[in-house]
Every structure is written in structure tokens, then in C-alpha cells.
């Protein structure tokens, strides 16, 4: 699953978190604003687009299969 948003630590103690939007894969639908749990004001504000934008396909990491050379562990 790819996320358009993620949070990162902010401040000197690292106890505050703020959202960061990846505009390369954001289409402007506003789903992240709706899902944002902060109250009474949302931490993400989306100024909606009349027509949704085209998103770039995110880079995919190649998954490696686990080694099956060892016996079953139990």
C-alpha cells in the first residue's frame, strides 16, 4: 500500500508530529483531510481540484523470497 502522506517528528523532543504530503502521488481528492484524526482543526487542509490530477506511479521495492534451505523451525 502506498501512502500519499506520512508523519514525521517535529520539535526538539520529537514528541510532536506533523503530516507531510507527497505531491507526486497526490490527486487532490481530500481523503487524507477527511481521515485526519486531529480536532477541532485538521492538520491537513486540501484545496480541492475541479478535476483530479494525474498521479505518478510510486517506486516499488523488489521483495526477496525468504531462504527455504533450512528445515522447518518446529
Characterise the protein shown here.
With 74 residues, the protein is mainly β. The chain has a domain at 25-55. The chain contains 1 helix and 2 strands. It has one helix at 31-35, and strands at 5-10, 16-21. It has a two-stranded antiparallel ribbon with strand order 1-2. The longest helix is centred in the middle third of the chain and has 5 residues, at 31-35. The radius of gyration is 19 Å and the shape is extended. The two termini are 32 Å apart. The model has no long low-confidence stretch (mean pLDDT 76). This is 4Fe-4S ferredoxin-type domain-containing protein. Residues 17-49 form the 4Fe-4S ferredoxin-type domain. It comes from marine sediment metagenome.
Biggest sheet details: 2 strands, antiparallel
Average pLDDT taken over every residue? 76
Count of runs of 4 or more consecutive helical residues: 1
Strand content: 15-25%
SSE string, helix = H, strand = E?
EEH
Fraction of residues in helix:
under 10%
> Which spans of ≥5 residues are poorly predicted at pLDDT below 50?
none
Structural class by secondary-structure content: mainly beta
- CA radius of gyration: 19 Å
Strand arrangement within the widest β-sheet reads 1-2
Q: Specify the overall morphology.
A: extended
Please provide the count of β strands.
2
Ends apart, CA distance between termini: 32 Å
Domain 4Fe-4S ferredoxin-type: 17-49
Pfam family, one: Fer4_6
Protein name: 4Fe-4S ferredoxin-type domain-containing protein
InterPro entries: 4Fe4S_Fe-S-bd (IPR017896), 4Fe4S_Fe_S_CS (IPR017900)
